[in-house]
Amino acid sequence: GAHAGQASNGTNCVNVGLWSGYLSQDNERVALGRSALQQGSGTQSVGLGNYTGYNNKSAKSIYIGRMAGYVASGTATDGNEHCIYIGTTAGQNSSGDRCIFLGTSIGVNNTNDDKFMVGNVHRGTLLDCTMASSSSAAIFKANADNIIFGNLPTTNPGSNQIWKSSTGALIQGS
Question: CA-to-CA distance for 118 and 105, rounded, in angstroms?
Fold first, then answer.
């Protein structure tokens, strides 16, 4: 499209669509859609959809869906990497590092690092988790009153596996 990749300094980039990759920086970027990855930077990033990754500076990141990863201020994402945003406006104006947002408008205006969120704007956030290198620092939050497990053992399996006591209580094995 017109102005695709214009005024950019990256090498090995693919820009398809009006203004895609315009004024972008860094190498090995793929932009498909109007203004995809426009004015952004970050090596090895992919933007699929109109305005995906617009002004975003995160490296090694993936944006899929209209305005996924779009940020008003690129300085908010300087130095970030490994972000994955899938869904219309997923991660829009997020400044978090190493985040994964799945669903329409999930992660909008997020400021926390290492978030993993699943849901959509019409039904809310189903999972709101924090990833960490140790299990004691990680958080798994399911926003559901009904969580159904398949067939659980009824005796302690002797591991960290969850099992069901004779009263129906869930217990983590030792």
Answer: 10
Picking from 142, 77, 66, 63, the residue whose alpha carbon sits closest to that of residue 110 is: 77
Which residues lie closer than 8 Å to 6 by C-beta, 6 or more apart?
22, 23
The C-alpha atoms of residue 36 and residue 147 are separated, in whole angstroms, by 38
Long-range contacts of 83-91 (CB under 8 A, 24+ apart): 83/58, 85/61, 86/62, 87/120, 89/65, 90/63, 90/65, 91/63
Rounded to an integer, the average pLDDT of 63-78 is 94
**pLDDT of 70 above 90:** yes
19 secondary structure, DSSP code: T
At 101 the three-state DSSP class reads: strand
Residues 6+ apart with CB under 8 A from 174: 156, 158, 160
pLDDT for 66 equals 98
The per-residue pLDDT for range 8-20, each reduced to its tens digit, is 999 999 999 999 9
Strand 124-130 to strand 162-164: parallel, antiparallel, or no bridges (unpaired)? unpaired
Task: Report the pLDDT averaged over residues 54-76.
Answer: 95
- Location of structure tokens 């002797």: 158
